[in-house]
Design brief:
about 290 residues, alpha+beta, six-stranded antiparallel sheet, two-stranded antiparallel sheet, globular
Length: about 290
């Protein structure tokens, strides 16, 4: 494993400079370089996207009134379905009543946060994954480090492909970024409900190499600081992480960097692997073989 880490360090040194954390602009009121730094993760400060809670007071009143996590998840799903028109497809009788002449009815495609989560579950380098990474970029000011291949220059073909994926019109209707804002704020509410001082989550990630995670600094034989992608999948179970790579990365993720976790919603596509979606940046990790 040491040779792999050292190789990653040499690759990093060959670059003209470290890929920057981000452009410094965000919607959370905290400098992006601080959010992306390893020190942020040890402090575990709360973050909020500007205006989201203030513009949706009814949602958070409903959440506060929910007796448990399951009821809160149902309330959130119902609120999102109503606000963004995400209800299940209407039955045939309703469609016929709306079109008594019997002509064809054109169905409007409504992008949803659930569709993005499903796309991420299949492939984090999909167009849906690019939209999610783009949301992190715009809200937290952190650039992705990987999409299909390493991202190191704005003038590269790799960056152009990422931008093409994230800006595709297919996933940019129905206020999709606002949907993700609400998802994040709901996750933050759920994680801190009744425990405002709750500590970070111990999470794991399996990898086979460090192509996707540039090595920033080697602390000792097992500990390194890695620059993780601006949105990254972890699991809460070490045994599950071993299914995805020989090297297990173990780290503490602050609650303010959690976008999604298994029990947040009653129905979603990320249940099978105890998956947790987290905002990336520099992380101190303990790297061990399974």
């Amino acid at each position: 494993m040491n040779s792999t880490i050292e190789s990653g360090q040499r690759d990093e040194q060959r670059q003209e400079g470290l890929w920057r954390h981000g452009d410094g602009t965000n919607l959370v009121g905290v400098p992006s370089h601080f959010i992306g730094g390893a020190e942020f993760n040890t402090l575990n400060p709360p973050l909020h996207i500007a205006g989201v809670r203030q513009m949706n007071p009814d949602l958070f009143r409903m959440l506060d009134a929910a007796p448990d996590e399951a009821e809160a998840g149902e309330a959130f799903a119902a609120y999102m379905a109503t606000l963004f028109g995400l209800e299940a497809r209407r039955p045939a009788a309703a469609v016929q009543a709306a079109n008594p002449e019997g002509g064809s009815v054109r169905r409007r495609y409504h992008t949803s946060y659930l569709r993005l989560l499903r796309g991420w579950a299949y492939d984090s380098n999909s167009p849906e994954g690019a939209v999610l990474k783009g949301w992190v970029e715009s809200r937290f000011g952190l650039f992705p480090t990987f999409h299909r291949e390493p991202l190191r220059k704005f003038t590269s073909q790799a960056w152009a492909r990422y931008v093409d994926d994230k800006m595709g019109s297919r996933f940019h209707n129905n206020a999709i970024l606002s949907q993700l804002d609400l998802l994040y704020e709901f996750a933050q509410w759920a994680l801190r409900r009744g425990m405002p001082d709750r500590g970070p989550m111990r999470l794991f990630r399996g990898v086979n190499d460090f192509d996707e995670h540039p090595v920033i600094e080697r602390i000792d034989k097992r500990q390194v600081i890695l620059r993780l992608n601006n949105l990254v999948s972890f699991t809460s179970e070490r045994a599950i992480a071993s299914c995805f790579g020989d090297c297990i990365l173990e780290t503490d993720v602050p609650l303010s960097k959690i976008l999604f976790f298994k029990t947040l919603l009653p129905r979603h596509a990320l249940k099978s692997e105890e998956e947790v979606l987290a905002i990336g940046g520099d992380f101190m990790v303990r790297a061990t073989y399974w």
